[in-house]
Design brief:
By secondary structure, this protein is an alpha+beta fold. The chain is built from 13 helices and 19 strands. Bound molecules: adenosine-5'-diphosphate (ADP).
Length: about 525
């Protein structure tokens, strides 16, 4: 099959570009067969005909990235950088603009650890499992904050603002100084790394003057080839409580109680309240409960919850640190939960030196993949797509949001995997919309459902913190103050940094002038 070509480039032009790339990285690191292209496809796509990459190219160093970027400018071929490309539910490895060449950084796997300060300088190909193995092999007493799918890279996760569950759960806030290849091939270091002999690169974020790290997060302004990340010292103790709430309405008081503890700083981790399906879909499948794809009734939900001892909502709260300190704060947590009358509570305790149970790894820095079992809920070829608006930590607002969402799930006959993830002051209403890719009629309902959800949320002032490549223009469009002033600013910066528009056109709804006509396609 001939590859999808980028706009304005013919087959011979693409071929010339790929041959030029091969002279930099070697022919074995240019991937342009049908099978290669298929590897870079979004396996969870709603429509598999969209977002095809033309090829992949995998440099092994920042110097090779610079050379590829310069060639991409010369040949006017757009690049889509990925670290390990396990961005499941948001587009996997696939580019927004069809015909882009995936700039696959997964071969860049260097790790430099500063044991005194607990910071690590990482290349983008370093996965959570790689870093975990490195910490263990070198007996370094530090923990990661891993996402539910820990298959990806540490940097890629922080660059898409992915979440973990420890006190360091907002990984993007633990970035401290980066090395970046700009769209013209120049190489910059941010923060203290801007000094040629900078001693505090991983320690002080800002350097002097404007601080740029977040400019390279969820943007298409540069390719991150190194970043410093702070890691959490292994605590003496993790003490906490698993809480199940019986009724839908219990969501409101649960959010208000946790939000207060979070703001006060009693609770420093980022807990996530999940609904029954978020817990059930990793231990059972739909066909064990419902015949022939029929509706999921309230009776069935009750039966599933009963079998697995699940509330309508569940949350795990954890305190980290010295034994004396966590022992002192634990009763505060226990009382706050008792006050809202949970259906069940289960205390949890880990002390340094104890083994870590596999299902507890998420709270204790151990990479995991079992939550990806959710893609199997319907059977057949599964998947999920993310819908994750930001909202205030307000119980009543969250319950209203839940009711609107739930009505939409019922209207479109989709099963709801929902959660509410706490940040320091905000809440993210994370929905993993589960897919059944073998059911054509089902799949047709998902896109209008997503659009309805985005519009409903936007009408209440809530917009997504992260979006699948299908919806990045739509979501960017909901940030509409002063006739989309933010988009105009982003695109002014984009034109200044990337006049040929070769870097990730369309990422986060930011289109360079060269491809402006592709917006919304
Ligand atoms: P992971 O390796 O954790 O699975 P991805 O590689 O899928 O993460 O990255 C998530 C998103 O972040 C990508 O779709 C891409 O847009 C962006 N991204 C990833 N790595 C880089 C990088 N090194 N520089 C710039 N943007 C990146």
């Amino acid at each position: 099959m001939s590859p999808v070509l980028p706009p304005g480039v013919n087959a011979a032009g693409l071929d010339r570009a790929l041959k030029a790339f091969a002279r930099i990285v070697g022919a074995e690191a240019v991937f342009a067969t049908d099978e290669d292209r298929d590897t870079y496809a979004d396996k969870y796509a709603l429509d598999e005909a969209r977002h095809h990459a033309a090829a992949g190219v995998a440099p092994a160093s920042a110097a090779e990235v610079q050379a590829i970027v310069r060639l991409a400018n010369e040949h006017k071929v757009p690049l889509w950088p990925i670290s390990r490309g396990k961005n499941l539910g948001y587009g996997y490895t696939a580019p927004v603009l069809p015909g882009s060449v995936v700039l696959d950084l997964s071969r860049m796997k260097r790790i430099e650890f500063d044991a005194q300060n607990g910071t690590v300088l990482l290349e983008p190909g370093v996965g959570f499992y790689d870093l975990y193995d490195y910490l263990r092999a070198n007996k370094l007493p530090y923990w990661l904050s891993v996402p539910g799918n820990s298959w990806g890279s540490v940097i890629g996760n922080a660059l898409d603002r992915g979440l973990g569950y420890t006190p360091y759960g907002e990984n993007t806030t633990k970035l401290c100084g980066m090395e970046v290849v700009l769209p013209d091939g120049d190489l910059v270091r941010t923060g203290m790394g801007a000094m040629a002999n900078g001693a505090g690169w991983g320690l002080y974020r800002y350097g002097f003057g404007p601080a740029w790290d977040q400019m390279f997060v969820q943007s298409n302004f540069g390719i991150v080839t190194k970043a410093n990340l702070w890691l959490m010292p292994e605590p003496e103790q993790v003490k906490g409580i698993d809480v199940e709430m019986d009724a839908i309405e219990d969501l409101g008081p649960l959010i208000d109680a946790i939000g207060a503890l979070r703001r006060e700083g009693v609770l420093q981790q980022s807990p996530t309240i999940g609904n029954w399906l978020r817990a059930a879909n990793i231990v059972t499948t739909r066909d064990e409960w419902v015949k022939d794809g029929g509706p999921l009734t309230d009776q069935t939900i009750s039966a599933i919850r009963k079998k697995f001892g699940l509330g309508w909502w569940g949350v795990s709260l954890r305190l980290y640190g010295r034994e004396s300190v966590t022992n002192a704060t634990y009763p505060i947590l226990e009382q706050a939960m008792a006050a809202i009358k949970p259906m069940a509570v289960k205390p949890a305790l880990w002390r340094r030196g104890d083994p870590i149970a596999p299902n507890q790894g998420g709270w204790m820095g151990v990479p995991m993949t079992f939550p990806m079992q959710n893609a199997n809920w319907y059977g057949g070829r599964g998947g999920h797509i993310g819908f994750s608006p930001i909202m205030p930590q307000d119980g009543r607002a969250a319950l209203d949001q839940f009711r609107r969402n739930y009505a939409r799930y019922k209207e479109y006959r989709l099963d709801p995997q929902m959660s509410f993830a706490f940040g320091e002051r905000h809440l993210i209403n994370v929905n993993a919309v589960l897919l059944n890719k073998d059911d054509e009629a089902f799949m047709k309902r998902v896109d209008p459902f997503m659009r309805a959800m985005i519009a409903d949320s936007a009408a209440h002032g809530y917009a997504e913190y992260r979006a699948h490549i299908d919806y990045q223009d739509t979501v960017a469009g909901t940030y509409d103050f002063n006739s989309h002033a933010l988009r105009r600013l982003n695109e002014k910066v984009k034109s200044a940094l990337d006049p040929n528009g070769i870097l990730a056109p369309g990422k986060s709804g930011i289109w360079p002038a060269a491809y402006a006509r592709e917006r919304g396609k």
